[in-house]
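Structure tokens please, single chain.
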Amino acid sequence: MSFLTPRSVNLPQRVRRGLALCCGCAAIVRVIAPNQALATDTPDIGALQLLFSSCAPAAHGWDRLSDNDNVRYTRWAGQSPDGRRHQKNLPQGETVFPHEGASDARIPAADEVINEQVDYLTEGFWRAMARVQGNPQTEASGQAAYARKLIEWIKGTKLYGELVEEIELHAQNACTYGTSLLQVGWERTLAYRYHTIKLGELMAAAQQRTDSGQVDALTLFPQMILDPTLEEDCVAILQQMHAHYVQSRQPSNYEWDVQPLSAKRARQAIHELRKDGEATLPLPYLCRNQPFVRARKLWEDAFIPETARDIQSAQAVFLLDYYTEAQLRAQAEAEEWDPAWLESAVKLKGQYSEFSQGQWTFHTGDATSSAESSNGGTLASGMSELIEVTTCLRKLVDADGVLAVYSTIYHGNINNAERGTRNAAGAYAAHGPLDYPLGLNYPLVQWRFEVAQRALCATRGIPQIMATWQNTLKAMEDATVTRTNLETCPPILVEQIMGVNYRFGPFVQVPVKRGSAKPEFMQMPGGGKTAEFMTQHVQGRIDRYFGRPGLETPPELSLIKRQKRVRTFLLSCSQALSFCFKLMSVNLPPEQIEQITGLPRGQFGDAGAIADDMLYLLTYDVQELSPDFRDARNKRLFELAQTDRTGTIDMSKLIAYFVRSEDPAVAAEVITDQQGATAAIFKQVKGDFDDMLKGIPPQLTENDPTAEQQMKFAEQIMQVSPVYQQAAQQPNGPFLKLLEAWMKSKQFSRDQLGVNKVSGRVGVDMSQVMQQQLGGGVT
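Here you go.
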């Protein structure tokens, strides 16, 4: 289910309930004209098309996609696969220089810097330490542990594979083009699987109902199946059974809208049961119910007006998605999109938006060669089989003065000739306000490679910064290779002959007028180390600018630049994961949340309020990549902890910090947060009490380090439970004796840790206790 489908009166409840998105404060609505800030029942598709055309990825002559890509991937006109200049490959009117076959090297300097930046940014994400920021009451009540566990679970399980790719794309996009967006949403997918029902099982169930005194249609159903004259009644009963099953399988916080079992399919199942004794029926199940995080590339699949200062203050956000016809029809049916629009969109298969020289156009041909297109060249080949769908998000005010995020889903080339007019039904798929129970933000977060100006579009990517430096490195490389070729194979001077056109190059004969006809090598001009000096000079400037370790880069400068970039990158990732937590708090069933976290969700109150009060924050010190730094830091911290006489340092937290800094994967396996550990200890004590109440001796742990905490929980349980109090008042009852043995064991563990003799290891021989209570029946 699409998270961007707007709320509308004709949408089913399952769609409306699935539209919980990210939250935050409301941003300022920026408008081109006054009426474009007001919500309407019918969208003006023509106005949206004009607004979309103002989102061109060009400013000051710099095309943000193609120019950056050309620098990064070292592309220019006249290239040859062998890395040399050939006249046949040059555009008409240009002449090869300095000679045919001269060096035309590709120096991927920008690509190298980008990949280095991306590597330490993504590694910082996976190695980062996570904490939940909130008020002191949040931390004390366990709400922070609840949030942390929920986010770490989704990050390490459901979203792990997706995050590996999307977080790297997020870094790649920003380093290459200056800005990247992370889109957050919720996906619910309802699928079907076949289930076999057997006539014998139906008869057994009917017999149980009969034995219990129930006589109704369900008890008679198996016998009715065998009677062909009652087929219509059986069809109706089977449809009711199917509806009841579907209703019983719904999650506690989600109402799905499932098509009822058709009479034709029910009749077929009745025939199979009568003939074969079994039949198969399609039964629905929720196969995907989770958040998603998706990297969006500005000016390819996400567009904003160039005047936007940030993503939340943008007048509109346009998101482009591509569907096959089958995918689009399934999506349209699930979302109840306008059928007339669907048929019009299918006819426009293969047509997609692109900007050329700052102008918006629709490409209507096959995009199999789209690698050379002006939109950046990353649209997949085979676009002729895909249908483009545009989603426009805007912050508008309705007639009551309420600000909301509105979504309009349409195809940009429907009614293209009617731009500027209000389009009738059939021109768009859906339109209306998104149901945002948690806030008014667009479901997107941004990361900028640099913040030199407020305008989001003013941010530069690495290729734009490095373009001239890379050209200089290329020129020095070409000059060095060309000079080496000429020095190794210098041109040959020969007597000039009329009518012969000679060329310049290695071993090429150059005609000259001179007295001797004897050929000789041309004397090459004396050279120096200019190319080598310039290469080192430019490389040093690149290293200093981007904080790469090098001879000319002070270590503290490299550290500061890298740390700053990692911090801002992780902030955007933290915001996206915080949005995921807010979505999970609302959309996951409470019982699933309790199962994931091990913490009773009900004790924390409203989950949405918790989400608004906390921020999931990722932090990482780039110095952690140095084992020497980690060892020295950990040693110093441990020495300080040993000298702590006031209890200022929490040793359990310090050890957890050491483990996380050494290996985050190991930390995830071995570290239990304090709140979770306390909950686990309480659960263990409660289980021991339940066993003792039944006369079952609990399993005792040798030298139990949690003994004192268990004894405190035992006192609390005895104070609030009348059942245990009554059982303990029976002097000769098994519960009292087992409880005394249990308390003796915990007391022993607390006071005598390290004693290691047979019964002494747990402080009591439980078999003797059982022999006393059960007359020697236990040995």
